[in-house]
Amino acid sequence: MSLSFQVPIFDVKNISFKANNQQILSNVSFEVFKGQYIAIIGPNGGGKTTLIRLLLGLEAPSSGEIKLYGKKIKNFRTWDKIGYVPQRASHVDENFPATVEDIVKMGRTSKRSIFTRFSKEDKDSVNDAMMKMDVLDLKDKMVGKLSGGQRQRVMIARALSSEPDILILDEPNTGVDMVSQKRFYALLSKLNKDEKITILFITHDIGVIADDIGRLLTVNQNVVVCNNPKETLGCDDMSSLYGVHAHLIHNHKHEH
Amino acid sequence: MFEVFDYDFMQRAFLAGIIIATLASISGTFVVLKRYSMMSETLAHSALVGVAVGLVAGYNPLWVAVVVAVLSAWIIEYLRSSFSLYSDAILSILLSGSLAVAIIIVSLGGAFNNSLLSYLFGSILSVSNADIVSISIFGTLSLILLLSFSKELYFIAYDEEVAKTSGIKVKALNFLLVTVVAVIIALSIRVVGSLLIGALMVIPTVSALQYRVGFLKTVLISLFIAIFSVIAGMIFSFYFSLPSGATIVLCVIFIFIISLLVNKK
After folding, report:
1. How close does chain B come to A99, measured CA to CA in Å?
2. What is the pLDDT of residues B86-124, one digit of tens each?
3. Of the candidates A57, A102, A110, which has its C-beta nearest B214's C-beta?
4. Mutation to test the A interface, candidates B26, B33, B159, B166, most A Cβ within 10 Å
5. Residue numbers in B near A103 (CB within 8 A)
6. Nearest residue in B to A77, CA atom
7. Does the model's pTM come out above 0.80?
8. A185-200: per-residue pLDDT in tens?
9. Which of A108, A134, B112, B218 is the most exposed place for a label (fewest CB within 10 A)?
10. How far is residue A92's CA from residue A114's CA, in Å, rounded to a whole number?
């Protein structure tokens, strides 16, 4: 594959992470390349969110090394290439004085220096991001008045407005209804296919997205990478990951 | 009817009041959104320690107050960002501690008199031209700094962690914000008093938030409420011989109640 010629976006080598004398992650290694569509699954407390926080430099590993675009995290400067949507994104403070447009504009902050005005390029990126996430018609609405699904799309629009190479989402569907979930995954898949944005996200809805994802990282202190999850992920894998007996229920939606 | 404007001291008082209303309400927007409301109270009392030292040692109390308030702001921000302590408890400890230290310093120095009281409650009517010059210069510098980084500070107030992951220097900007707020508070206590500056910083923004509009409109409404309250409060205090700082605060609280009722869901 041509992948080996690229510098990986993330190059994770032998990282471990301990908190309060408890081992959260042990000796984890993997790479993330441009264009991949990766889901992270695993039991609660297994270290999924910690893994993402380590990738974003919000926590430092106890040992091992993470490189972004070939650079050590502390030397990495172009953070606007990385869009992050945290877990609590849909639970915003309802009184915070922000319209949808105010929030999406935040994504341009690190691209502008202190005295520059909001340029046409900034405006175009903000509008483009709102259009892609289908929130342009909500732009003057207060973000506290939106539904969970709408807020989620606004938060992703904010991440997109900095024109990132990769989107990292931590359980993006917490507090979002089923209809919005399906629409949401279709949008993620579209961003990956049409805009070539690398997607890395934590989910529990593995059944919903199994047809789309290209790689799966299973996290439970250790990380196991499945490169072809549809074929390799069976009941035994799920049982050992979650520590309970698992049944796979096949989704026949494409067979009609 | 407008004889209130005929007196030089009243003109100076209005000018100082409007400058401070502007500084307090704009910086107050960030203070409230970052949930630092209690910090403004604590810094106002830390500034009193500076006033006490200034009075006893014979330095200009205003400048010692600025130095002590800034140091205190840095300590609070350091404790908040480096230790997992209850931040409201830290503020409460520093607030009562500062007040106690200020009172002991002035009583030991034999200076517990009207001078300290004027900083506690403010004495807007005795504002001098020199006061106005120093408030204007340092107030303008503070405001320029705040407005230059307003989009970063707004992002941090909304979501500190996401701001950090998008490359914003969150720690440095948090220190910048508390420094600017400390300077504004220390400059203001001569005019509205340390007991009242917190109110002028927090209540206009909380009132403006009731209207549930975007960021820029919230800042403008807050600014309008602060300036209106200062002018109305001073006019009332002039005609009814009331203490000016307290009257201003009651005016701003009155507007807060109206804002609550008007925007009741």
Report:
1. 5
2. 777 888 888 999 989 988 888 887 765 667 778 888 888
3. A102
4. B166
5. 158
6. B167
7. yes
8. 888 888 899 889 999 9
9. A134
10. 27
Residue B29 has pLDDT above 90, yes or no: yes
- For A135, left (φ over 0), alpha (ψ -120 to 50), or beta? alpha
**Alpha-carbon torsion A51, A53, A54, A55, what sign?**
positive
Inform me whether the C-beta atom of residue A99 falls under 8 Å from chain B C-beta atoms. yes
Q: Residue A66 forms beta bridges with which residues?
A: A12
Please state, rounded to an integer, the average pLDDT across all residues of chain A. Answer: 82
Q: Which residues of A touch B213 (CB under 8 A)?
A: 97, 142
Nearest to A80 among B33, B166, B208 (CB): B166
CB contact under 8 A, A142 and B162: no
Structural tokens at position B249 = 């605060």
The tokens for B192 are 């509205």
Look up tokens 């403004």; give the residue: B40
Q: Name the nearest CA neighbour of A13 among A56, A81, A68.
A: A68
ipTM score here?
A: 0.84
